[in-house]
Amino acid sequence: MDPIRAKISGTMHRTYLFVPPEERAEVEALGARWDPTNKCLYVDGAPPSSLARWSTMSEEDEYSIISNDAFVASTRISCPHCGQETEVIGIHCSTGTVSEEPLERFTVSDIRAVDDALLEELKRWPDFRPAMKGNTIGEFANHCAACGGVIGDIDLHSEPDHAFFDILHAADGAVTLVPLLGTIRLSGNEHFVIE
After folding, report:
1. Are residues 30 and 100 in the same domain?
2. Residue 93 belongs to domain spanning
3. In what order do the strands lie in the sheet with 150-151?
4. Residue 62: pLDDT above 90?
5. Do 38 and 117 fall into the same domain?
6. pLDDT tens-digit profile of 118-165?
7. Which of 13, 125, 141, 172 is the most exposed place for a label (fewest CB within 10 A)?
8. According to DSSP H, which parts of the chain are helical?
9. Is the dihedral of CA 99, 104, 110, 114 positive or negative?
10. How confident is the model at residue 56 (pLDDT cuts 50, 70, 90)?
């Protein structure tokens, strides 16, 4: 829900901020508030330009992907940094819309923004979170549970031997699909499942 519609309807959309601990005081001084349940700083509505670098959503970014039939796809791979086995996840939609066009059987990579409901559900996978690029927040990415290294989506979605390239034809038990509740909204790039 955009901030203007949220104000009219009496509810307010929260934009969660991803702030390194050493920058928390600075961000709070700029008006962010602490959500003790989600253990995260946030602002009501779209973040002001002074807080944009800590946000996963830019002011002009809208949720281009919407699905009420989506799953978290989970599997284990060897970390490309340390070689330890680690869990990685991706988003798979059986049906949904991308920029208002109906689509079936696609995964989402390069996730730039997620709505509050999806953010809440993704807490079950704490190693899937926005990656820092210097001092700015990047796209959501898997992080190795052992070394903390970022495992980019290019290593998971791009080639036929990658974990999420063809979820529907993966070997039995190779990928687990966990249903997401309700409707999810996010922004990213869709990849179609091979028929």
Report:
1. no
2. 65-192
3. 128-133, 136-143, 150-151
4. no
5. no
6. 988 999 999 999 887 665 667 899 999 999 999 999 889 888 888 888
7. 172
8. 3-9, 24-29, 116-122, 154-157
9. positive
10. low
What pLDDT shows up at residue 81? 96
Same domain for 73 and 28: no
In-domain check, residue 59? no
Residues 39 and 79 in one domain: no
Same domain, 90 and 179: yes
Is there a domain that residue 60 lies in?
Answer: no
Q: Do 25 and 48 belong to one domain? A: yes
Which residues are paired to 33 by β-bridges? 42
The predicted model scores a pTM of 0.69
How many domains in the chain? 2
Residue 174 banded pLDDT, cuts 50, 70, 90: very high
- What are the tokens at 83? 């070689």
Question: Are 33 and 89 in the same domain?
Answer: no
Alpha carbons 113 and 185: distance in angstroms, whole number = 8
| DSSP-assigned letter for residue 121 | H
